[in-house]
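Give me the fold.
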Amino acid sequence: MALNPKLRDWQGKVVWLVGASSGIGLALAQALHARGARVCVSARQAERLRDFVLDHPGSLALPLDVLDAAALQLAARQIARQHGRIDLCVFCAGHYQAMRAQQFSLAEARRQLDVNLVGAMNLLDALLPQLTLQAHQGLGGHLSLVSSVAGYRGLPKALAYGPSKAALTHLAEVLYLDLRPLQLGVSVVHPGFVATPLTAGNDFHMPALIKPGQAAEAMLQGWAAGRFEIHFPRRFTLWLKLLRLLPYGLYFRLVRRATQS
């Protein structure tokens, strides 16, 4: 059952991708531009954004840090002035570093929570007034938050990353309840392991590892089907979803057995 308006025809649609300088965000920007969308890309790496614009005519680069709430507000206003609306906004920004309790770093934990969760809140502060205006004008709009399967349940080496992504999923659920009556779409994306700069430093086997382009295609398919949750690759994520149903004793034993080194 479709929980959102189905997004299939991208020709002329205005898309703002926050966190689009590499990985899933960049692959998604490339895929949407190829389908005729008017793509606006934001990230801290201004040079990479400029390169994207040079290679993708008609796109717009808006360099910023998601921890800079004022910069996000300026970017949202600029897109609205230039294009008149924002049909889809995707929060792809993220920060990850493996962490166990035995090597806990408060500074690193705060960094992951700030980028992954507070950054999303900063985006909401900039975006929600525009989406609400569009709802009253009958223009619609869609917000998608890229979370992670690491937010499903507690996993080793995800002491800060997992909680930040679990909170992001919870945030998407609340947003859906608030915004769906306004005919605005909300979705949450739960990728498994994707070969990006964020995962390049992992020192463990990453099962069902996929490329960013595959992740982008899965997201496009999810939006086309009107899904609220988009998770991939399913040969991996369906098993993790099943693990969520297990009682703690069995869950802890299975995870320890699967991840012991």
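The chain is about 45% helix and 10% strand.
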